């Protein structure tokens, strides 16, 4: 993706860290008129520039929380703050111009070109035509779509993945302080989805928006989230933690069950190979036939490399320099030793051992 960082946010606003706001949910509650309590007394803080994922079973109130932040749904009680500003009573229309919103299936206007779709909010804000044109081209570039090629097309002339990228570009158009994303990648097939997630992570590294993203997909949550909030019915916050903590130390039986049988494997995907895990290098001249793993790679990738090579040990490289040896058992034992007490009979590292040992070429 051709990414051009913007340093002067007043010239072409849009991609500066300064344009992200912290969010604080302070005891928010939503009771619908029929008596359903969708969210009960939820408090949550999201740092400026942080990507937080809300996850939980269907009907636990994820979308309600998201839509309370941009006031598409009015909280019954509680407060929502952007930085230190209480927005619970702010004008919702003006508020929504500061908050980008990306939904499943994007919701592009079918009879408008891609450029016109991306320029929707800037037009509402009364920007000049030149400024809108420049901004639209910049945003399309940023999400990996050539403005010359795609700007004049209509939504039906794009693939699902391309439309999803346009949705992200449109949400970023007026340099929102917050981006809300409700199942943004779920309408595309798994391969496109993974690619969009990777592109999105690169984009976020560039724009550093404060993002709250709702998903059903734990892998997506683990891949994208700086922190993950697990909700159970009634918008109850079960745990709010970085992915590795959530997988390694589920705080409640609900979370343990929710993160499921393969949490050991998922956890490996978010844990890097560090020097502390390494055995000393083999004696001079030996070990050159071992598979190699870069320092900092995920333990999951390291283990996959070991299994592919049918090897018990890999040489770990810092750049070109070998710095130690990672053994298969070290990876698996690490998972065992860090597993939480497991009275519910859920997964432990020993399950990992079993999966790996049974799946391994003899
Ligand atoms: N307008 C409404 N009136 C009454 N109840 C509602 C209304 N909208 C949502 N609910 C209920 O509030 C609860 C939370 O809904 P919400 O859409 O926030 O859940 P969710 O976690 O986003 O679900 P999903 O993952 O299935 O999209 C559900 O029990 C739902 O039935």
UniProtKB/TrEMBL annotation:
InterPro entries given in the database record: AAA+_ATPase (IPR003593), ABC_transporter-like_ATP-bd (IPR003439), ABC_transporter-like_CS (IPR017871), CBS_dom (IPR000644), CBS_dom_sf (IPR046342), P-loop_NTPase (IPR027417)
Keyword annotations of the record: ATP-binding, CBS domain, Nucleotide-binding, Transport
GO MF term (any one): ATP binding
CBS domain mapped to chain residues: 286-342
Ranges for domain ABC transporter: 23-258
PROSITE patterns: ABC_TRANSPORTER_1, ABC_TRANSPORTER_2, CBS
Range of residues in the leader sequence: none
Chain segments carrying region Disordered: 338-362
Family listed: Belongs to the ABC transporter superfamily.
Name of the protein described by the UniProt record: ABC transporter ATP-binding protein
Species this protein is from: Micromonospora sonneratiae
Organism phylogeny: Bacteria, Bacillati, Actinomycetota, Actinomycetes, Micromonosporales
